Amino acid sequence: MLKELYERQSIRHFTTQKVEEEKIEKLLRAAMNAPTARNRQDWRFLVIRNKEALNTMQELQPYTGMMKEAACAILVMSDTKETDSVEYSYVDCAAAIENILIEGVHLGLGTCWCAVGPKQERIDNFRQYYHLEDTLLPVGVIAVGYPAETKEKVDRYDPQKVTYFD
Ligand SMILES: Cc1cc2nc3c(=O)[nH]c(=O)nc-3n(C[C@H](O)[C@H](O)[C@H](O)COP(=O)(O)O)c2cc1C
């Protein structure tokens, strides 16, 4: 078993410690090694370290209060010029986001995945605040930092959700 998969949890409290540049690059490298439909690699990443942007992100998406404590955030977007459908934009970015979360555990970091799309109002808010081109679809934003909370581990394996077609 890959232990990082089972250790990952959404972290919403962080220490004030900065995240090293090399670690941010490792997160992005992990993201860009995820699979994409037709290998389009349509993902784009905006690393947000600006304190004011982190402190006010809740105005763009109300459930991002943890950003106030995060060292940085990674906004994961799809360049829709590169994809055949918006569904693939979401799927490709979700794969990249999950890789970031798992690599984060490996590096001793805490993360929290926050949705941006598909709510149009939030998409518009992020496009406006970060001056994004209309062809960039902000899919999710990840809080990143050193964790300041520990949570009880849960194993969600539920055999009732599995059927076999032999
Ligand atoms: C698509 C998606 C959107 C999410 N959006 C938010 C969010 O806006 N704010 C937040 O605090 N957590 C968000 N989460 C985290 C979930 O609440 C969390 O993954 C879930 O409660 C399970 O907890 P765990 O991540 O600790 O296992 C999101 C997760 C996903 C996959």
UniProtKB/TrEMBL annotation:
Its cofactor is FMN. Residues 6-59, 64-146 form the Nitroreductase domain. Pfam families: Nitroreductase. GO terms for molecular function: oxidoreductase activity. Keywords: Flavoprotein, FMN, Oxidoreductase. It comes from the Bacteria. Belongs to the nitroreductase family. This is NADH oxidoreductase. It comes from Amedibacterium intestinale.
